[in-house]
Amino acid sequence: MQVPEEKKIALELLETEQAYVSRLHLLDQVFYTELMKEAKTGKTVPEEVVKMIFSNISSIYQFHSEFFLPELQKRMEDWNRNPRIGDVIQKLAPFLKMYGEYVKNFDKAVELITAWSEKSPPFQELIADIQKRKVCANLTLQHHMLEPVQRIPRYELLLKDYVRKLPAQSPDRGDAERALEMIFMVAKHSNAAIAEMERLQNLWVVYQRLGLEDDIVDPSNELIKEGPIQKVSTRNNSTSEKYLFLFNNMLLYCVPKVIQVGAEFQVHLRIDVEGMKVRELKDTEVPHTFLVSGKQRTLELQARSGEEMNAWIE
């Protein structure tokens, strides 16, 4: 007798979940536990660092091993009598928000592993030692750590497939569709969290280059464009090298610092975007120039090319 398509997918979900739980077990109960034990007894690495590397992996492991996997197993054993998984996945979805923290921390965790492997040979040895075990299947700690990052997109794909293959009158249809909607929201939420974190990190780097002037540091700002520009001086027909940072609310007109200690630029002028006008200057001897006039000041600027000028004006 042929296995219905939707059951095949439900079984694949169960099988991948079993494999996933053993991967989480390896991360939490083997890597994390042994590195932590070593950190407590030896001088290999501070406990804090181990905690930072593994973030909230313990909660994730417990949730999957003690709740989601057993529920899924029960469902599949009972499939012929009650062919449904949608309701179980609905219970799972809200807990997937836990992944936000793990995913956001992932890059930092990988950096810490690299940094401390260089700093502390015993730390590196212990990791290498665990990686040699059969359970690691010749893969690195970093590789195993990527698994939770990829798990939510995997649920989304499997569930999409499951919903597609469900017969129209299946008792699981309503639940499965709702579950898919919930998983989709969580996936979006975790992507949005990552994007927001990257935006803040990039913004912070820009603020450091500007010397952290307090009236400029504002987490809600958005950097739109930055780059070198020539300032045209009409008095003596010369140009000098400047640098612009355009945010959603202000244009910073900066001078590159010769001695790069701390900040890279000094902010000379700040022009509010509100009320600012920009136009190309066609009637000058100097090519690719444009005029920026704001409440605070008017600047005559020269770009390196027509494209660059248009990009700034845009």
UniProtKB/TrEMBL annotation:
Cellular compartment(s): Cytoplasm, Cytoskeleton
PROSITE patterns found in the cross-reference section: DH_2 (PS50010), PH_DOMAIN (PS50003)
Alphabetized GO MF terms: guanyl-nucleotide exchange factor activity; zinc ion binding
Domain of life assignment: Eukaryota
Keyword set, alphabetical order: Cytoplasm, Cytoskeleton, Metal-binding, Phosphoprotein, Repeat, Zinc, Zinc-finger
GO biological process: cytoskeleton organization; filopodium assembly
DH domain span: 5-193
Any single Gene Ontology cellular-component annotation: cytoskeleton
The protein, known as: FGD2 protein
Boundaries of every PH domain copy: 222-314
